């Protein structure tokens, strides 16, 4: 039977295939191989996906309230966009992008982040010229070829907002507040907001020069993988993970201590606005950014809930040079991106979302009862109430058991006896109380009940 199967990983075959394989009918069963998703790319299904849905709903609600409209950009963009928009000297562009040539030989890349695509769209359609302020948000998958581990994946999801056209520190504070409000709305309380400033060119350039010189003097203490970055962005030594680098960073001067007047005023105003909005924060000089077009505010939301390594839930800052860098008119911008996978992990671990429970399970028996239950279920679902009905003709006992398992808030009993008496029984599964409802008034009375109980929540 030749060696056709030598490259096949046997763990991916069903037991049946393996049994059959031993009988040498190999070629037919290659088609039965169990396929796997790509490493670092996950399926998100119920009950987990309910948590994701809630986070996305909350993100949309927070954005709607603050006046941000949704933008959906393509997942594939020209590679050049990220080289310019994220920066050639970054880990993302150097090592992590999914880049390939398409059938025309054009180099394309699966987006590793959202801002570059948004700014490309803004420039392409001239939106920043048509409107003085643009407020946009996005939600969607991003791709980075990183080492997969808990909280770090190769396909992951980001929610992000971009506020374009406003130079005032009020914009920085508003953007931060949207992120903060989302975290609170979804119930993540173990979160710290860390802020810093990257200043402007006029203080950053001389500071970088000084830092580069100091690093060169201490070359033996500089980690090997950082040596090539000393010229491009010496400040990144502050967020280098290596212990030696961290020890060295502690001895270096901080940009925070060398700000010019404009930078220090901007930073002060951001802090004042955060105080006015009662958003707590700490100033952390270790928050830096990799590229020239970042300036002034940089911030991060971190948590202790996910351990030490993947503790960043989101981060952002001001990027006044980016629109111009991507071919648009000079336009200030500020924004952030949050990792939905990490938000979902925190909520899952804290069990803050106890899964999704139906509002009502209808337990029916007999032809008449089934047709009433279908009609009522459709009417209530049309009003946004979640209703489960029996689809398998199970006994009332089995249906009740399922209602318990689903953790339903209410159960409506419409058995043959109830049909005969013209009265259904509504059980509140929390208080164990029961009400009788005339069959002809079922929908109206149930609606009343649900409006009442939604009000109490
Ligand atoms: P960044 O675009 O690198 O500033 O990341 C913003 C946020 O996206 C981070 O704080 C994380 O929450 C999330 N994130 C970034 N990379 C990944 C990844 N590989 N897997 C999961 N989440 C990520």
| Largest sheet entry | 8 strands, mixed
The second-level CATH architecture of the largest domain is 2-Layer Sandwich
Q: Name every ligand kind in the structure.
A: adenosine monophosphate
CATH class of the largest domain: Alpha Beta
- Estimate nothing, just give the exact number of structural domains: 3
Low-confidence stretches: 1-21
N- and C-termini, Cα separation = 67 Å
- Strand content is 15-25%
Corresponding CATH superfamily of the largest domain: Bira Bifunctional Protein, Domain 2
**Molecular shape:** elongated
Structural class: alpha+beta
User: Rounded to an integer, what's the Rg over CA atoms?
Assistant: 28 Å
Q: Which whole number gives the mean pLDDT?
A: 89
* DSSP summary: helix tally: 17
Q: Please list the strands of the largest sheet in the order they lie side by side.
A: 1-5-6-11-10-9-7-8
CATH fold assignment of the largest domain? BirA Bifunctional Protein, domain 2
Helix percentage range: 25-40%
Strand elements, count = 16
Question: Key features?
Answer:
BirA Bifunctional Protein, domain 2, disordered N terminus, Rossmann fold, five-stranded mixed sheet, eight-stranded mixed sheet, binds adenosine monophosphate
